[in-house]
Amino acid sequence: YNFSNKNFEINNGFVYMAKGELLIFDIENKKLITSDYLNQYLKGQVVNNLKIIDDFLYASFDNGLISIPLEFIENKKYNAAPSSENQIIVYEYNELLNKNIPRGFSDIEKIGNLFYVTNEQSSLSVYKNNFNSLIRNYNFNGNSVSSLASSSPTKLMYLEKEKELYIGSIGSGLFKFNVEDKTFINIKSDQGLLSNNVYDFLNSNDKLYIQSGSGINYIEDNLIKNINFEDGLSSDIFHKESLHLNRDNIFISGNSSLQSFNHKDLENKQNRFSISVFNLIGIDENNKKSIISKDEDGVYSIDYKIKTLLVDLFPDKTYKSDQVQYFLKRNNSDEIISNGYNNKLQLNALPYYTSNLDFYAINGSGEKSNNIVSLSVYNAPPWWLRIESIVGYIILLIISITLFVRYKDKKTKEKMEGERKAKELEEAKELQNSLLPKVLPNVNGFQISTYLKPATEIGGDYYDFFYKKDNYFYAICGDATGHGVVSGIMVSVTKAGLNGIPMGDPSTILGQLNKIVKRVNFGRLRMSLSVAKFNKNSVELSSAAMPPTYHFSSKTKKMEEILVPNLPLGGIETEKFDGVKKEFDQGDVMVMISDGLPELPNPTDEMLDYEKVYSCIKDNAEKSANEIKDALVYLSDDWAKGVMNPDDITIVVIKKAA
What we know:
Blueprint lengths: L6 E5 L2 E5 L3 E5 L4 E4 L1 H7 L4 E7 L2 E6 L2 E6 H5 L14 E4 L14 E5 L2 E6 L3 E6 L5 E4 L15 E7 L4 E6 L4 E5 L4 E5 L10 E7 L2 E6 L2 E6 L2 E5 L10 E9 L2 E6 L3 E5 H6 L6 E10 L4 E3 L7 E5 L2 E10 L9 E6 L5 E3 L5 E5 L4 E10 L10 E8 L6 H48 L11 E8 L7 E8 L3 E9 L4 H16 L5 H15 L6 E8 L3 E7 L4 E5 L4 E5 L16 E5 L5 E5 L16 H11 L4 H16 L8 E8 L2
Helix pairs in contact: 4-5, 5-6, 7-8
């Protein structure tokens, strides 16, 4: 066999190797074994990774993974079926049947009963107990704090003490994932990594070693340190799993070499250095540069025309001089400002009068500079901030107070007017609430959940139910145009009409209501309304200018957006209203909404839109009616982020229960 391209795992005297077939090397008996029983599960698949967790060996292939109990192998039952308690399990991805199964893995880490899995297809995914139970996927969604900003994750390493999962990647550096608050932090080469390609981890003696690029990084006391060619580490093409621990020695394996160092040598190695100021350069508003000199008191003096100050620092040692990070503390505060590896620190908008600046540095080995460079800078203020100018400001203030008193009187009158309007708005809200059902009907075989969030101005949203046992069950959702009391009167007329006309099919009901609303003559105001009639195994729906109604079929697992293109009530008296009829079986869901939900703005004035509403309903369609409604409410709150809804939001969810 050619072992150079095989994947390895070692456990209890056995070496596991795979590439097309699974090979087992018994170290004690110096015997290489193939298992026909195990390899039949591979079905010719090329195994691209192995991982031992607890008592199981996991083998990855392009379209899934296999779980093999170690007792089956280590009890030397290579070609016989395992016990019923520990079955071999094949998890194979299927777009239709098993689309949540991981398509192989780059690495797996188990934390409690959760499996964290990385691969190129789905980035980082979390499964509970087994690989059929996907809990969450952290594929990059544009937010680098709540999702993994890499499509090529490599190794995983969990540190229990820190409650953090470290994730390596190709090209994106190192990620730290806090398993408690579910947030990511990205560390790259500009923060101390030797490379943004991270291949392997090793945790030893409270240090996390990271094989990145052509060297080794390690994290100690929250500092990113490194071992590179300046420490005697030779360049090589390092292995996929290149870091190994043997007693106090750490080995780094590559295609051409096996190198080692004793971790205690890192603690004993001293790389002391100092920093000095080369010069200070001031840059004025015209981008003109000038060297700033200190006076006999050691103070650097500038005036308000200097907009930027450049402080040029340098270390006195060449050892890892290109890996020195520079830091600044202002005016004896506890805030530390990092300038990264740039030895030219740019200070903008220095405060007037005296500023005390302290500079220090840390090199690639984590050593802090022996000294702190302290500078005192005096920034002279412009004339308009001098004493005589301040006297003028006081006089101006007296005049301003006089004007303010007059302004306050005006505002008091405006406030009284506002209170009057607020009272009218409150009355309109009370009218709107009085028209809604006090309790939801208890309809056998159906789950019903509703939600109405009034707007800053009353928008006239309305929902209702008409139910007579063993006779009929109707759901109503509507939205009157306009705002305030007038819209409430429109809803009142509609509700009265519904209570006064015979209940028939939804299209007929809308036709009768249309005539009533038209005859009342609300001018240009209109009433949008959806009516759904629920039969034993079907639903009839008609709509007068309402947003789409969403219908999820539990049988087909598909969701349909139903839009019935009719005019609103109160338009043309002879309008004929079309309707549709759909099957409505056990587990089916119907969701009716007002346009206040999809047209909800966020802080940047973007609308939520119908696509997100559609996706939210589809993702939660197999849950209860209350859970579907709660998901839509959460979607709206999360999108708005505190922005008040300009129009009423109404949600009516009806599910055919078991």
